[in-house]
Amino acid sequence: MKKIPRYFQIARWIREKIDKGEWVIGSKIPTQREIAEQFGVNRSTVVTAIEMVKSEGLLEGKTGSGIYVVNNQWSLISAISPPDWNDFTKWSLQPASEHTVQMINELENRKDLIQFSKGELGPEMFPHAEITEAMGKVTLQLQEFGYGDGLGELGLRTEISRHLQRIGVNIAPESILIVSGALHALKLITTGILKRGSTVFLESPSYLHSINLFPAEMAIREIPVAEEGLNIKELFQQKFTKNSSILFLNPTFQNPTSTSMTLEQRKILLDKCQYYQLPIIEDDIFRDLWLDAPPPAPLKALDKNGQVLYVGSFSKTIAAGLRIGWLAGPEAVVKRLSDVRMQTDYGSSYLSQVLVKELLASGMYEKHLQKVRCRLREKRDELLRLLSLHLSDVATWSTPSGGFFIWVVFKKKMNMQKLFKQCLAENVVINPGFIYNDRHSTLRLSFAYATFEEMEAGILTIKSSLSNQI
Amino acid sequence: MKKIPRYFQIARWIREKIDKGEWVIGSKIPTQREIAEQFGVNRSTVVTAIEMVKSEGLLEGKTGSGIYVVNNQWSLISAISPPDWNDFTKWSLQPASEHTVQMINELENRKDLIQFSKGELGPEMFPHAEITEAMGKVTLQLQEFGYGDGLGELGLRTEISRHLQRIGVNIAPESILIVSGALHALKLITTGILKRGSTVFLESPSYLHSINLFPAEMAIREIPVAEEGLNIKELFQQKFTKNSSILFLNPTFQNPTSTSMTLEQRKILLDKCQYYQLPIIEDDIFRDLWLDAPPPAPLKALDKNGQVLYVGSFSKTIAAGLRIGWLAGPEAVVKRLSDVRMQTDYGSSYLSQVLVKELLASGMYEKHLQKVRCRLREKRDELLRLLSLHLSDVATWSTPSGGFFIWVVFKKKMNMQKLFKQCLAENVVINPGFIYNDRHSTLRLSFAYATFEEMEAGILTIKSSLSNQI
Question: Which phi and psi (to 5°) does residue A165 adopt?
Fold first, then answer.
């Protein structure tokens, strides 16, 4: 092998990729830089290799847009449809954000960056001891498991029912559906309940604008969020079509603004929604992460008429990789969504389900939450301190009383796209408000993931990037 | 509590269900018999309770179709759409089967029935020791885990890549997507690749007819399956629309017929599909469960042009509750489906993924398979013996060389709906061929789940039920 030149080895690797059908016609091959990094060679070596494969007719370069596979008459892609990513990933209403969101999703997996973006607990809050102990217990009690019932493991549903009881929500286990995270619950609702042509009322800004949740046939109406959460007055100036309007709401530590509705506002909203027959999807995934005092009761706790579908998750509080969340509501609706669910993936992992059950039943979840709250409070306070120190001239923010995020509003209009790129060039990932359909110059900064040192370096980077714009 | 009469307690329970919004307007309450069983009372007590709640205006009876909730002006269901289950669960093309499939799905969870239906390994084949050992190792090595990358855990993808290598499929880990079972992979393909208005070619009979996989906009064309699998000649008499036709195929131990295509037939099919640019979804979930000799190579092993998307799973070989399967194919298609997937549930359970990785890497999976094959062979042979002894006058069948099922063909036309019901009355669950869109009098009998004693009792029940029809 030693005597074969590197460019020759790389050319062979490219040919194999095409030959095995892994790189199909019409697809773009990795950039010269990426290949050079992978093989640990100079770009010139990669250029030689690519020229060699080009001369065989397998590749073709398009100026300014990379090298494409062009051989191979019967490729799969040509038989179905070309992978037009721009058409496919209709991320949001604002074209500018599409690319940014995709980019952020990929950047969040990189360990070498300062993550103000990541909506996850930092590694220091991972409940290693608790999970190890629970895994041990689960393993000892392990019984054979196959396809479960449609709603999910009964023991877990019973524990979630008890957990909800503590926050005033009375829901029997048979009205709870275990899902693979909150996004999965929301997706089931959009595909399983909403009709084509439905009108969806959404907060603005909202993290839901940054994900591809609603089919194009649904009309999205944005309702602004202010200090006290959703602007109820503006919501009820809208027209509702009976049986085809629905409200998606994240009333507690809203993502991205971190605002919460007061109890009073919740009552008014629920009353009005009942009057107008507007059903509510209550997304309450940050509730357990209050930092100063427990938040007001969920809408679901006030709901006597089955007006609210309630969605929760353990992704933010334990670990996203468990893929365990829930959906609770009227038995008939839950049953219906369970059927939809069984037609797509036959349920959530049994192991994840019994692990979470054990964490809840043993009280380890509650103890873990107490530790997490302490640590998150420290991290929030540190980020607030850094913001005051370095950015108080140019921006304002509120102190979030729970969740992961500080919502930074710049006093003057800034070029947020440019700020995003400049920070990234310095290895800092920030989420500009426009990906949540915010029209102002805003930033969502997560204090959950980065270390104190990273926070300081990150804020200084934002500051120096801004200095170009002021 | 003792002095409160039972009917009063039941009435209170009903009121609570309605009050909490668990039973919403328009929904049917459980039958009198079900409620009586739940409370351990006579039906007359339930009737009294229901009359009481009816008199309060909360319930109303419709003759012949049960008791419905009628109160409660602002229920969720009235605001969205009434739970019309018949409209919602469009299980198959044959109206008769809808109800039967739903019924079978529910019956499969009951432990008191003889299960000729269940497509799962019996509890005696559950790899208890192997999973316990692997769980121990996984727990020791556990690192913090969050949202994973879009394709799934790299270690697992690497092990699957090695596993596929052994059956002649060369696929790099970056061309493998981890999914939550084979159905999930098929669902991703139908939603992520197929256009509305696509034509889908399916085997007939096929288990895919019994699940609600394809949106109504897609045209389904059925191609018959015979001794040597798919009727290739008939397939290529069809018209194909370029870029919007696709073939779904289960060429090895096909469900429900258990037939396998020969290597020769596979080559011919692949050549022709390449010529006509017809892409293939190869569903190969039973491959590892060969009983007599390893089956012919998968189409994917013969595919040099990225014509085939290859789907596999550990649901049939280890345990369905893991929810781990894979999809392998051209890198661009896999990437695309990974994006679709990340927009619905953010990946599969990390715990399930690392557990399966450990089972594969340690060689425990392969050892487990050897034990499973021995046991399945015994069970197949026993069911064949019982069939020969009791049903050879009225039916024929072939010896399956792998998988779970014996496909029984009756010599004369039988009323299969009636047979299904009569067997069920005797606590035996069978799958009549019509749920797979088979027009003949056929049965799919699983030998994987029932014990020897249950098999004997079950076959005798089928025999005696048939005697009414002969």
Answer: -55, -40
**Per-residue DSSP letter, A78:** H
| Residue B351 shares a structural domain with residue B383 | no
Q: How far apart are CA A403 and CA A202, in angstroms?
A: 20
Render pLDDT for A174-197 as a digit per residue (tens, 0 to 9): 999 999 999 999 988 888 777 767
Instruction: Give the structural domain span for A346.
Output: 125-366
Q: Give chain B's largest Cα–Cα span.
A: 80
With b meaning 16 or more CB within 10 Å and e meaning fewer, what string describes A227-240? eebbbbeebbeeeb
* Among candidate residues B83, B115, B135, the one where a domain is terminated: B83
Chain B 287-326, residues with CB within 8 Å of chain A CB atoms: 303-309, 315, 319-324
Which of A:154-193 have CB within 8 Å of B? 170-172, 174-175, 179-181, 183-184, 187, 193
Chain A residues touching B187 at Cβ < 8 A: 343-345
Q: Tell whether A81 lies on the interface with B, counting CB pairs under 8 A.
A: yes
Residue among A77, A126, A305 whose CB faces B144 most closely: A126
Phi, psi of A386 (to 5 degrees): -65, -40
pLDDT (mean) for B168-178: 95
Distance in angstroms (rounded) separating the CA atoms of residues A173 and A156: 9
Report if residue A427 sits inside a domain.
yes
Q: Which residues pair with A309 in a beta bridge?
A: A281
Residue A306 to residue B76, Cβ atoms within 8 A: yes
Between residues 239 and 268 of chain A, which touch chain B (CB distance below 8 Å)?
A: 242-244, 246
Q: What is the ipTM of this complex?
A: 0.81
Give dist(CA A173, CA A212) in Å, integer: 30
| Model confidence pLDDT, tens digit, residues B202-240 | 999 999 988 878 877 788 999 999 888 999 999 999 888
CA distance A423 to A408: 15
Number of Cβ within a 10 Å radius of residue B182: 23
Q: Who among B22, B172, B336 is closest to A22 (CB)? A: B172
Q: Is the domain of B403 the same as that of B393?
A: yes
Domain boundary residue, one of A366, A389, A417: A366
Kindly report the CATH number assigned to the domain that includes residue A21: 1.10.10.10
Contacts 24+ apart (CB under 8 A), A159-166: A159/A356, A159/A357, A159/A360, A159/A361, A160/A312, A160/A326, A160/A328, A160/A360, A162/A360, A163/A360, A164/A310, A164/A312, A164/A328
Q: What is the CATH number of the domain that holds A101?
A: 3.90.1150.10
Q: What is the number of domains present in chain A?
A: 3
A303 and A175 both lie in a single domain = yes
